[in-house]
Amino acid sequence: MAFGLKLRKYEKADIKKRVDEAAKILGLTDYLDRKPAALSGGQRQRVALGRAIVRDAPIFLMDEPLSNLDAKLRVTMRAEIAKLHQRLNTTTIYVTHDQTEAMTMADRIVVMSMGEVQQIGTPSEVYDTPKNKFVAGFIGSPAMNFFEVHYENGVLTDANDGINLKVPEGRAKILNEDGYDGKDLTLGVRPEDIHSEEAFLETFPEATVSAKVVVSELLGAESMLYVTSGKTEYVAKVDARDYHKPGSEIKFGFDLNKAHFFDKDTTLSIVEKAKDENRAPEHA
């Protein structure tokens, strides 16, 4: 941690003070006399952070700092970096291809593709109101389900005979005003917005589909169901109590009030475009 300070000709007493303070913040006080080879992966990452702290840098630039760590250590280091940020309150630009890191650590996220900014917003904004299909598919785990559908007279259908859904009035109004009646578009539905509870199915009978479970993954408090409706494949995230074995025939309800509609050619969100033009209420 002292190397950069020595190159800049800092006084020895100042170097020791800065290194001791950084080591205390990072929990490295007992390891200051160790060689790099004697440090664990997590400790090495903390040393790298220490090099920035001792310089009293106004901005931290972190370029995928956790990419070489194992999964368990990445989770631990995410929490440590977040706590460090809260303590130092230093502006930090954090580059990552891991959307989980971005969602759990960022105050604001810049989503980029092919060198171009796709959307800037808080984690909840890019998750709940993605501006285009790329952002919608990149943010969220498991990824958003996409369905190529035809919209006509307020109803969505697909060529695989798996989808036949009535669009809620508010969103149908936007689609009609923007000239999508009789056209193809892309429907995006997050796995957690696909329901199998009886109460939801009874409340929204015109947004239900029949499905067959292909693969079930029980993950403690929740289950991932990989299913097919006709020839249409998608993923549903349901409560563990709604676990169904492979081969089961069940009904699902799509929460179309939370669904996303994308222009087939531009891939832009139709509803978010209408909101930007003040043609749709924020809750649409």
TrEMBL record:
GO MF annotations in UniProt: ATP binding; ATP hydrolysis activity
Top-rank lineage group of the source organism: Bacteria
Any Pfam family matching the protein: OB_MalK
Keywords: ATP-binding, Nucleotide-binding
Domain ABC transporter: 5-139
GO cellular component, one term: ATP-binding cassette (ABC) transporter complex, substrate-binding subunit-containing
Keyword ATP-binding carried by entry: yes
InterPro entries noted in UniProt: ABC_transporter-like_ATP-bd, ABC_transporter-like_CS, ABC_transpr_MalK/UgpC-like, Mo/tungstate-bd_C_term_dom, NA-bd_OB-fold, OB_MalK-like, P-loop_NTPase
Name of protein: Multiple sugar abc transporter, atp-binding prote in
Organism: Lapidilactobacillus concavus DSM 17758
